[in-house]
């Protein structure tokens, strides 16, 4: 493998010899391995240090790899999990993908193929899709909201779910496009089939093509066995292609054929594979602009845009904030072991007047921060204002309006004030999170990678 890899890999296996072999292999490739002989130790390691990818055996005493996958998904949803198994079959791969695995590796593994799979996972971890974990199959539990805008979206979604036409989900980041795709699948006749997702923007062309269509043994260096792609794994179910606007023209051609003919060839293969798949795509970009610029194929756009469905922004439906806030407060109180929380009238008004550029995702992260950092069971407008002021890059509102000093070398600049506030917020979050950096990142509403970069920038790493 020519490209040097960087990242922290948590390796989980009950075989000490295999842990040693994998540790040496990953170190040689430029990665930092963190061995764990069981799932319990693996979860403890995740809580203590930054991990980019988890590589776990499926069959282990005590908690299995599939159970570990579920625990990582609940506590560290942005950390991809790769599963290793000596019993690798397509049905097992489908089960793992449905459960949220990023990929799987067959034992005995080939060195180049293992590193190739890790490279894909590391790329996806550095550019994660918007988080969306379904907590139930009912439509209202997936897409919450009683506003007119959301009622219209859910009515269209129920109608679209009954057919097989391709659906194109549009809307800003954080509006819940993945949840809408999952809701469409769960309310369709295909609900018993797999729901497979792929974040197209996270992978370069060469990796995206193999991820979509799979590959034959010998297709490239490291392809030691035939491996099915996401299209094949989604047979009988739904394939969700997130950020479809980032797909290159070369891959667009192959996608167009699959959408038209429902057939493809694996990378390096000549056999035509036929599939029965429902396609759902999503983007926050203007595909129409891409067509005009010549970066997105017009024929592919029309194939995708059969049933367009726009997800409204949170600022377009402020009346839903009360319902969303109650839900997220209940969920985060239970998750963080806190007593139930409620919002005062001025607290709710403070939430409703915010623009929430990150939409529901930003609101959810902010409410978790409120739950963890607040003392009383009733959250007030003052609590909301306090936590807004602690966000990195956002200075708290001034108590008074002092006279501006004349420019001089020792005057307080906007940039220096921003850095002071940012550092204070980082220190406070680490203190309240008990130095658990994963939790601190969630409290601040940023990714773990952003948190590590900020800690290094401020000399706190």
Automatic annotation (TrEMBL):
Alphabetical keyword list: ATP-binding, DNA-binding, Nucleotide-binding, Phosphoprotein, Transcription, Transcription regulation
Organism: Corallococcus macrosporus
Protein's name according to its UniProt entry: Sigma-54-dependent Fis family transcriptional regulator
Residue ranges of every copy of the Response regulatory domain listed in the record: 8-122
Transmembrane segments: none
Pfam families: AAA_lid_14 (PF25601), HTH_8 (PF02954), Response_reg (PF00072), Sigma54_activat (PF00158)
Record region (Disordered): 390-418
Gene3D superfamilies the record matches: 1.10.8.60, 3.40.50.2300, Homeodomain-like (1.10.10.60), P-loop containing nucleotide triphosphate hydrolases (3.40.50.300)
Compositional bias (Low complexity): 401-412
Domain Sigma-54 factor interaction: 143-372
PANTHER family: PTS-DEPENDENT DIHYDROXYACETONE KINASE OPERON REGULATORY PROTEIN-RELATED, TRANSCRIPTIONAL REGULATORY PROTEIN
Stretches of the chain forming a coiled coil according to its record: none
Residues found modified as 4-aspartylphosphate: 57
Keyword flag Transcription regulation: yes
Taxonomy, superkingdom: Bacteria
